[in-house]
Design brief:
This is Acyl-ACP thioesterase. With about 250 residues, this protein is an alpha+beta fold. It folds into 2 domains: about 140 residues, Hotdog Thioesterase (Thiol Ester Dehydrase, Chain A, Roll), CATH 3.10.129.10; about 100 residues, Roll (Thiol Ester Dehydrase, Chain A). The protein is about 15% helix and about 35% strand. It has 5 helices and 11 strands. A hairpin with a 5-residue loop joins β10 and β11.
Length: about 250
């Protein structure tokens, strides 16, 4: 069977940013919840993979934001897998108001890793055999490598990964990374502009008690480059580009 997940979420006060709009980390948590529910329907959820000593890892996410909902409004998130190959499964998201106004959309690429070796492995056969929806209009697959480089310079901030930053796969949750990197954008951008696109490329894991170094610098008047690096190993944990528009 094929499964398309659709969930309705009413915006709560704790999910608002300082400008009274739904925050990007809160939206990503909702998207993650809907993706988890869809994976459960396909019997490829976290617990299903754990039975085979595998785990999920998000490799790339690009989200475009058009409008931001306010407190008390309801949004509808629809998500589904769009393609499967040897190493990756691709998933799209569509975020709308109840009356059908487009708020955001996103595409993502996921991989599986060995819980024992903590290394990437080919997708297990039971994932590759799922039946994909056919009545969809999938977004273009994201390229396996980003078209931007990590920013140089001194770290803007150092972070120690906390207990509440890790998830069931025993590594740092992707939403925690996004919140950390967005908070290194300068005050004027955060206060006066809206995030219009975020493209994140995840390269390796981090874990509880790891120290991470976050770098951000303007790429142009409308975009920033971000990087998070492991302080001990020097490995890049992720690279990202954020784009910003207009004023509130």
């Amino acid at each position: 069977m094929t499964y398309i997940q659709t969930d309705t979420y009413r915006i709560r006060s704790a999910e608002l940013d300082a400008n009274g709009r739904l925050s990007v980390p809160a939206l990503m948590n909702m998207m993650q919840e809907s993706a988890n529910r869809n994976a459960l329907d396909y019997s490829i959820g976290i617990a299903d993979l754990a039975q085979h000593s595998f785990g999920w890892m998000l490799m790339r996410l690009r989200i475009s934001l058009y409008q931001y909902p306010l407190y008390g409004q309801s949004i509808r998130i629809t998500t589904y897998p769009t393609a499967v190959d040897k190493y990756f499964i691709y998933r799209d998201f569509n975020i709308m108001t109840e009356d059908g106004t487009q708020l955001a959309d996103a595409s993502s690429t996921w991989l599986t890793f060995s819980m024992e070796r903590r290394t990437m492995v080919p997708l297990p056969e039971f994932i590759r055999q799922i039946t994909l929806p056919t009545n969809i209009n999938p977004q273009l697959k994201l390229l396996p490598k980003p078209d931007f480089l990590p920013p140089d310079g001194e770290p803007a901030k150092s972070i120690d990964v906390g207990w509440f930053d890790i998830d069931q796969n025993q590594h740092t949750n992707n939403v925690a990374y996004v919140q950390w990197l967005l908070e290194t954008v300068n005050d004027t951008t955060l206060q006066m502009k809206q995030l219009s696109e975020l493209d994140v490329f995840f390269r390796t894991e981090s874990h509880w008690h790891d120290r991470l170094q976050i770098r951000s610098r303007p790429e142009s008047s409308e975009s920033w480059l971000h990087g998070i690096r492991h302080a001990t190993t020097g490995k890049d944990v992720l690279l990202a580009r954020s784009r910003w528009r207009g004023s509130f």
